[in-house]
Amino acid sequence: MNLKTKRLEQLRENASTTISELMKSLGENILLEESIKGAMPKIPSNQMYVEIFQLAYGLKVGCLFSLLDMGALLVSEFRAETNLEKRFLLKNIQASILEGYKLIRNFGKARAHSYFSKLKKLAPVEINSRILEIENDLDKFESIYLKDRTLRDVTYHYNDDMLFVYKKTIELSSEEGCLVQVNRYNEILWNLIRLLDEIIATSSSYVFVPNPTNNNRFKVSESGIHQLVINGIRKTDFPKDVSKALALVATSMDRISAKMSVTNRITTKMEELGIVGDRLTKATKTMYEMLNMRLLLCFYYIDLASIMRAYINSASTDESILNLRRLHIIHASTLDHLYGYSESHKEVSFWAKIREVIPESNMELIDEADQLDEIFVQNIEERDVNYRHLHAHYIESSGAYSNAVVRIINSMEGLNPLVEIKKSENLLLLSKRLQDFLNKLMDCLAKEGEEL
Fold first, then answer.
1. Of 45, 154, 299, 307, which has the fewest CB atoms closer than 10 Å, so is most exposed?
2. Taking 60 as the threshold, does the pLDDT of residue 141 lie above it?
3. How many CA within 13 A on the CB side of residue 71?
4. Rounded to the nearest 10 degrees, what angle do helices 47-79 and 3-30 cross at?
5. Taking the CB of residue 134, how many other CB atoms lie within 10 A of it?
């Protein structure tokens, strides 16, 4: 067994244990949040130590959560039963790594305001060589693994063109290639955490830190509700049914993407021939929009099934909470593209484009579309999209470059598994109705074409 293979095997063996240890360490650090914010210099001239103390603490919390988030997905990928599930979990792992790297160092102009850049400026001279060593490791990691950052975007947000999402997903590297990336990321972050611990220990000698007052964290996780829900799901036919359904959806996904590619080629050829604005052009565009929605629904089902299986196979409450968070992200991202939470998103949503092509003469389809509108409205909650944005981003969306991890951890307490799973169930039922509606609309449009 070579060194690389040995390290990857160790990664598999230690993944579950690491999650519990990371959650414990993260919880201990979060308990100090208010105290850290209230830190004061023991004498006025020690103010710089307060800044580096708070900076090192914030960066450490970010590193721990990044390792935790990635670790939960990694364990789920190891347990996945099909290659399709593995592929969809691998894209989530890589997106998680990129989000963590973004918090630590960011990209482009934003890099100057990142945690790591600030750390470089404030760090004592005696640790400069170690800072530069980690910076060099980050540079190499970015150049090898983070050249293309679009996978993270399509994983967390999908895309208006689902064929693009499909292509990015099938381009994913092998499981071994992803695990090599995970292993290297682990090494870099643990080196950074060790350095941050030293900085915190040194600077704390010059800083007064108030005693923590808040010791109530993870109320939901402590209630045992996750295990009750998981046990209930395991007694149903879901675990067995989802395996059969995944194979069918995978075939459908490949078939739809192939049709979209053909439609694209036809559109390109018509443009080359100067055929624009006629009935054929409109029909081709309509076909593409319907296929686009179908492909989004396929992605939703596979993402949902992968994370639901990860949830019910969770070995600890810590894993359960992290997987439930991912379930929430998928649900809200899908609804935002399907229907839209804001007025601006509703105007360009997949559903808005489908409604535009319903023949005015077909009152049966119009009435059914109105019914679907009502169901969409029942499923839309503004709180969901706000939570999705929070849970998907480690950095606050405001102008200030600040850590959102503490808010993410606290908000995970508000994710009730009974509520989140019911939302997913409702969206699955709506997805089936949408598929049936698209079939009827397709038949209707085809008949109209024959009559011309």
1. 45
2. yes
3. 26
4. 130
5. 20
Tell me the residue type at 79. R
Residue written as token pair 């750390």: 119
Hey, is 78 helix, strand or coil? helix
The DSSP secondary-structure symbol of 403 reads B
**Which residue, among 331, 362, 359, 336, has the nearest Cα to 347 in the 3D structure?**
336
Tell whether pTM > 0.85.
Answer: yes
d(CA 434, CA 427): 10
Can you say whether the dihedral through the CA atoms of 389, 85, 166, 147 is positive or negative?
Answer: positive
Taking Cα atoms as reference points, which of 125, 175, 205 lies closest to residue 12?
175
Distances (CA, A) of 225 to 22, 217, 413, 425: 22, 15, 12, 18
pLDDT digits (tens, 9 = 90+) for 19-35: 888 888 888 888 777 78
Q: What is the four-CA torsion angle of 340, 344, 350, 352, rounded to 10 degrees? A: 110
Q: Which DSSP symbol is given to 278?
A: S
What are the structure tokens assigned to 266, written together? Answer: 């036809």
Contact between residue 391 and residue 377 where contact means Cβ atoms under 8 Å apart: no
d(CA 116, CA 135): 8
Residues 6+ apart with CB under 8 A from 212: 31, 32, 34, 35
| Per-residue pLDDT tens over the stretch 198-253 | 999 988 888 888 877 655 554 445 557 888 888 888 888 777 777 778 888 989 99
DSSP bridge pairs for 41: 207
